[in-house]
Amino acid sequence: GGSPITAVRADAAQGAKRPVRTRHRLRLRNLRPDDYEAMRDITGRVYASMGGQFGGAMSKEKFQSMLSRFPDGQIGIEDRGRIVAAALSLIVDYDRYGDSHSYGEITGDAYFTTHDPDGDVLYGAEVVVDPDYRSMRLGRRLYDARKELCKRLNLRAIIAGGRIPGYRDHADRMTPQQYVEAVRSKKLHDPVLSFQLANDFQVRRVIRGYLPGDAASLDFATL
User: Fold this and answer.
1) Which of 41, 59, 65, 86 reaches 20 to 30 Å from 182, CA-CA?
2) Radius of gyration of the chain from Cα atoms?
């Protein structure tokens, strides 16, 4: 981090485009307790429209529980000291849950009480990016950091349940499985699934009832 990022601005008077230098000091690090206010702000904006138990801003109790149980798994990117993106993870013994789990079951309702240091899989619970910092490849940087953590801990795999928020617009004419295949073949774009596929993940199955209240995904998710 620390290198200037160049944006392009149109000059209204002349119709020309000229570069405008916007300085960001981006740094990858583990999350700390004092990052809660930034995380509450980001999650509140990202999930403002989501209903159900897990919609809206993250609670302080959940954030503190995640950090206390597995601090190495909570990774953030800061800009001048303030967190602007984060990836939250835990380790699980995957055989205890299998492929038909819900988000609440495998993450302990997002408190990470299911974290098992002796488990075999790094479970990706969440990736959030401040809407003002999108299109800066921060999500990819966080995914790469997760992969490095998985290697360092000698875990078998990274597994995640992924929302498919674009599905609602196509549900009247295709099943979730057909939608996933259309996204995989790049006939359709899904903001979550397309990103995960671009980061070398493979769809194992479609889960029903993964995140109750996720209206955009109609409660479906990919594993």
Assistant:
1) 86
2) 18
